[in-house]
Amino acid sequence: MSEDDLFDLEMGGRDLTNISHMIVEPDLDLLQTIGHLEDPGSLLTWGFPECDDTSVPEFHLRQQQQWHMPDRYREMDIAEFLLDRCENQEQLQRVGQELLLYQQHDLFDLLRYLKYLVDVMRENHIIWGVGRGSSVASYVLYLLGVHRIDSMFYDLDPREFLR
Asked: Are 75 and 58 contacting, i.e. CB atoms less than 8 angstroms apart?
């Protein structure tokens, strides 16, 4: 079965924990688009090709199109979702400011995926860190639950994350 078949089973509610073994065939076309296959008949060894003709935004867009997430996350209005979580004018302004920065960097799909990832971790009782590095400067990531540092309380500049 392919990686997509396995994903469809999982997303369709099939319990995969009791399956003793399963052969998942790699998507050779996908591997060839992001790297090279040295010996397709044995172990697959691949890497990212030298991409002199591919810009960073094009590369990121290509990778984002491979993210597996339910359509309800892929199609959600992430800006509306975040603005609805604001409790006062100061938060609305901060979220609006950050959303403009995220939009300038074409990262709305990333925000949708992070919402999905956090929901999956919560549903499965997976513990993740409280936050680290420059990501804690983002109030949007705080509202999504990616980290637990209220950047507005600590007066952190969101440009520290999105520069």
From this structure: no
In a domain, 55, yes or no: no
Q: What's the number of domains the chain is made of?
A: 2
- The answer to whether 135 touches 74, Cβ cutoff 8 Å, is no
Closest Cα partner for 34 from 21, 19, 18, 51? 51
Note down the domain range covering 142: 69-163
Alpha-carbon distance of 20 to 85, in angstroms, equals 43
149 and 77 in a common domain: yes
Asked if residue 8 belongs to a domain, the reply is yes
- For 121-146, write each residue's pLDDT tens digit: 999 999 988 888 889 999 999 999 99
Which backbone phi and psi does 40 adopt, to 5 degrees?
-60, -20
Rounded CA-CA distance 108/162 in Å is 13
One-letter amino acid for residue 89 of the chain: Q
Q: Whole-angstrom Cα distance, residue 147 to residue 35?
A: 33
